[in-house]
Amino acid sequence: MGLADASKRVLLGRKLSSSQLGETLLPKRIALPVFASDALSSVAYAPDEVFIMLSIAGATSYVFSPWIGVAVALVMAAVILSYRQTVHAYPSGGGDYEVASVNLGPAAGTTVASALLVDYVLTVAVSISSGSQYAAAAIPFLSGHEVFFASALVVLLMALNLRGIRESGSYFAVPTYLFMVAILGMAVYGGIRWFAGTLPEVESADLQVVPREGFEDPLSQFAMVFLLARAFSSGCAALTGVEAISNGVPAFRRPKSRNAAATLLMLGAIAITMMMSVILLAREMGLRYVDPHEVDRLRTVAGDPLPEGYDQHTVIAQIAGALFSDFPPGFYFIVTMTGIILVLAANTAFNGFPVLGSILAKDGYAPRALGSRGDRLAYSNGIVFLAVMAIVLIVAFDAQTTKLIQLYIVGVFVSFNLSQLGMIRHWTRHLASEKDPARRRSMQRSRAINTVGLCFTAVVLVVVLVTKFLEGAWITILAMAAAFFLMRGIRRHYERVALELAAEEGDKVLPTRVHAIVLVSKVHKPTLRALAYAKASRPNVLEAVCVSTDSADTDRLLEAWDARRIDVPLKVLHSPYRELIRPIVDYAVEIRRANPRGVVAVYIPEYVVGHWWEQLLHNQSALRLKGRLLFTPGIMVTSVPYQLRSSAAALEREDRQMTRVRPGDLRRGRVTDAPPDRVTPPSERGR
Question: Would you give the distance in Å from CA 588 to the centre of its chain?
Fold first, then answer.
């Protein structure tokens, strides 16, 4: 095994055969952290965004925070119940894309796909950026290097996911469950102290919030409604990631739909409980929180500005710091788990994006490379592409969560709406033919749930578009439009290529003649082998061709040709400007033009070498020539290989890799006829 192969195996693990796909399926205990980490992680930033929006009018508007939390929770509950219908009706993993395509048509399906693809990229960028901000707050030397740290985290997640969904899920399960324990434990402890009357105040409770410029006076009714709508739309970031389970149903163990629906229910209950707990504790503990870029709006009780470089901690950090002021390990545990879950939240996108990309590739809307599984049965190309796009966003927006969050949730709510509308169409179509009363009642109940979900998500989408359009949502809409037209263009390309490649009767007609050309640079073994192979193909005309760039070299070639009495005519193409490619191409085109119904067969001798550095020393002219001739109609290119001795080294490496017996292969039945010198008999082991 070469160094590159060994490094790849260390990074990704041993290869998995297609028959082992069933071994990668997830039980619910692993599927929950794999697919729910994104939605659960929103607890770390959705409450922050709610308080940031309300702080625009000052701290008095915080009184509305619980009601905004309740509104977000109601929308989440409706969406969760709606998606439970989706995973039962469409368990193949297409999710929103499949629902929209089947029930609303290809245009709606492509719209949903573009929205989801953009949202997955933003999920990685937002989650990793938020995690890097937490890390920079806890580790001083990372401050100012958040972009580099966030990019490194994306690469790390990419490498873990390339090992396969089952293995990456096992890595992420423990931190996700520890985050649940941390936040729910903090909520329970805070609730006990609240009822006991000993709930402490957070560090910012003694500060004042100066309203943003233009909001100093009491707000009109319309302005207050608009402010609450902005806070509500920011809080709806908590709903991102809910759709990932509907896209990942094939990754569940059987019964797939039932397990996916149960995981959705657990996700909804845990996420709503955690979010409401954080919002209620923050309000009761006197939180004062503003946009991190507007910390100068925070003032002391006396109205004085805060000291230079004041560090405003996140909402969860302030709550944990107050509750566990006498128990620092509790504080550090909560903050650490929150930072980790923000990084792991991106794993939801790393599971959803490649699956959706593979489905789009199968339908012709994405490059076919996205539909290929790697040697660990993961959609490797989709994982790498997602990582690259996320890093581009992180660098472009300087890893600032507040900047990226404005681009968020637009795409996911577009897909929510079209998915709910598609499900309503789905149930209506089936009700038209269903006669069984029990089944009809079940379908009517499901349609009612999807109708309620559509009403809720439609309201949220309108609010998000109105309140966030100028704040950056327009960038997301442009990205979705670009992805939409790109996918439609890819589909048209594949359709056009398929039409061109369709077989016709005329394609079976033989050419009138074959004019064969063997390229010659020297009279040596590769040339003689190419001549012999060309003769064996029995062309109508066979000739050897050399390009003369140096008269002395050409004279020596002609002498050697005559000395060996080779019975193939040798034609010399003079090249006064020392070009090698153009004279051959021009000559082949001229022959083809003289006989349009014939073909020109060009035989190119090539060396086969065993080391990568040798490839740089040979065959460069042949590669360039083939590249030119492949675009010329009526010209066939044939490489005639000649194996140098070093090529045996590559063959030996390949044999060693194919025949090497790994630990456990015999027990698993993967070795049926192992060579005696590679397997030690049990009786001789330990000698």
Answer: 46
**Domain 508-659 bears CATH identifier 3.40.50:** yes
Cα–Cα distance for residue pair 364/357, rounded to 1 Å: 10
CATH of domain 25-432+440-495: 1.20.1740.10
- Residue 636: strand pairing partners: 601
Q: Number of helices (H) and strands (E), helices first, in the chain?
A: 25, 7
Q: Helix/strand/coil (H, E, C) string of 491-555?
A: HHHHHHHHHHHCCCHHHHCCCCCEEEEEECCCCCHHHHHHHHHHHHCCCCEEEEEEEECCHHHHH
β-pairing, 514-519 vs 599-608, is: parallel
Identical fold, 25-432+440-495 and 508-659: no
- Interhelix angle 221-235/437-468, rounded to 10 degrees, is 120
Domain boundaries, the chain: 25-432+440-495, 508-659
C-alpha distances in angstroms, 71 versus 84, 225, 269, 276, 464?
Answer: 20, 14, 15, 10, 14
DSSP state of 368: G
Query: How far is 661 from 255, CA to CA, in rounded Å?
Result: 35
Q: Give per-10-residue mean pLDDT for the chain (687 aa).
A: 46 46 64 78 82 88 92 90 86 80 92 89 84 73 82 87 62 84 94 93 90 76 83 82 75 83 89 93 92 84 81 88 92 87 79 84 88 67 90 86 70 86 92 89 90 88 80 83 94 89 73 90 90 92 92 90 91 87 91 90 86 71 84 90 78 60 51 45 42
574 φ, ψ (degrees, to nearest 5): -80, 135
- How many Cβ atoms sit within 10 Å of the Cβ of residue 260? 28
The residue written with tokens 């009526």 in the block is 634
DSSP 8-class letter at 141: G
Place of tokens 């805070």: 190
- Report d(CA 133, CA 317) in Å as an integer: 12
Q: What element of type H or E holds 136?
A: helix 106-138
